[in-house]
Design a protein that fits this description.
With 366 residues, the chain is an alpha/beta fold. The protein is built from eleven helices and 13 strands. The two termini are 36 Å apart.
């Protein structure tokens, strides 16, 4: 673990974790996809002191009729948010089950440049057959094959981020050179289903490598900076965290908090009339802000951070901002990201050396 401070992340896709969350949202359905909406949520989270926001995504619509559904790509939303925030980390969800890792790596590197080093990447899978048809790709049918695509995709992205050395851009007026070609490298990756030669088309990200988050049962722990672990009780979370084998571990927690207008249980019951709240195997807190503070204090003994999934963003995020994070700050259990800090430095992760530059130094030393 990185230290006593607990890092808090919050998922801000859509209207909340419940599929019918839009029914209790504080805006009209046609406002869901507006720039003001996503920027407003990000600003609230940043002002509250969250370390990170995540933005869920997938090639298929996030719901079905009769609920209004729609989604703008997570990377596009993350880029917009990056330009309107200054300290909070931003991690879009980007599956590489069918997406081209070369293009994914370029998009994410660009996001890190836009955000001045505050970008992360949540690696997930596309497990629906319909997703393959949308992409026009052969179906990746079983869990092992999807895990292979995630593993290879992360490996390619990381190699491409290193394919430009940090000082590859020389901008020499005297020699009329923009790049030092000797500091660009082929990655020469060959996997079971594709090959990538490189180099990248975007300079190395400010962080060197973006912070990569994912489930260690889906992506090898050696490829992750942050493991996202689940468990329906703190003891289960603690066991999963102990087995993660990654530099940092975040617990996944669903929350439905008491508000001035209704208890968390009443709000859940109201939405359950329309659709069930899917049980994803996460720890779930339904109740008071003080109760959540106690849960997070307990989790801080076992994990480095928590990613919260609010039932309804418009109702739960204000309670988190007014009551939960201030209470945690008073107990010195959380710390705000500092201006100018990268996401890696906020999480206590070192900026990695470039693999090609390091190899050249080792070769010269022989």
């Amino acid at each position: 673990m990185s230290g006593p401070a607990l890092h808090l992340a919050v998922e801000i896709d859509g209207d909340g974790a419940h599929p019918a969350a839009w029914r209790r949202a504080a805006h009209a359905p046609d406002q869901l996809l507006t720039p003001r909406r996503v920027a407003g949520l990000a600003t609230v989270a940043e002002n509250a002191g969250f370390t990170l926001i995540t933005l869920d995504d997938g090639v298929l619509p996030p719901g079905a009729a009769p609920d209004p559904v729609g989604r703008i790509g997570a990377v596009e939303r993350a880029a917009f948010v990056a330009a309107s925030t200054s300290t909070i980390g931003i991690a879009p969800v980007v599956p590489v089950t069918y997406a081209e890792p070369f293009h994914v790596s370029s998009q994410l590197a660009s996001l890190d440049h836009i955000s001045a080093g505050r970008a992360g990447w949540v690696v997930t899978e596309e497990d629906s057959p319909e997703a393959a048809r949308v992409w026009g790709r052969p179906l990746v049918a079983d869990a092992a094959a999807r895990a292979r695509e995630s593993r290879d995709g992360v490996e390619v992205a990381r190699a491409l981020w290193d394919s430009w050395e940090d000082d590859a851009v020389v901008r020499s007026v005297a020699t009329s050179r923009y790049l030092d070609r000797d500091r660009l490298h082929y990655v020469d990756f060959t996997g079971e289903t594709y090959a990538v030669k490189g180099p990248a088309i975007v300079p190395r990200p400010p962080q060197g490598q973006l912070v990569v988050l994912g489930r260690p049962d889906r992506v090898p722990a050696a490829q992750l900076d942050v493991a996202l672990v689940e468990g329906r009780a703190p003891a289960s979370v603690a066991a999963a965290a102990a087995d993660a084998g990654t530099p940092r571990v975040f617990a996944e927690v669903d929350v439905a908090l008491d508000t001035p207008d209704a208890t968390g249980a009443e709000r859940v019951a109201d939405l359950e009339r329309h659709a069930p709240w899917t049980d994803r195997g996460r720890l779930r807190h339904i109740g008071s802000a003080d109760g959540l503070v106690a849960v997070l204090a307990e989790l801080s003994r076992h994990v480095d951070g928590v990613r919260l999934h609010p039932l309804v963003l418009d109702e739960d995020l204000p309670v988190l901002s007014r009551l939960v994070l201030p209470a945690l700050s008073e107990r010195r259990l959380v710390a705000r990201p500092l201006p100018g800090a990268s996401l890696r430095s906020t999480l206590g992760l070192k900026r990695p050396a470039n693999r090609f530059a390091a190899a050249a130094v080792q070769e010269e030393a022989r």
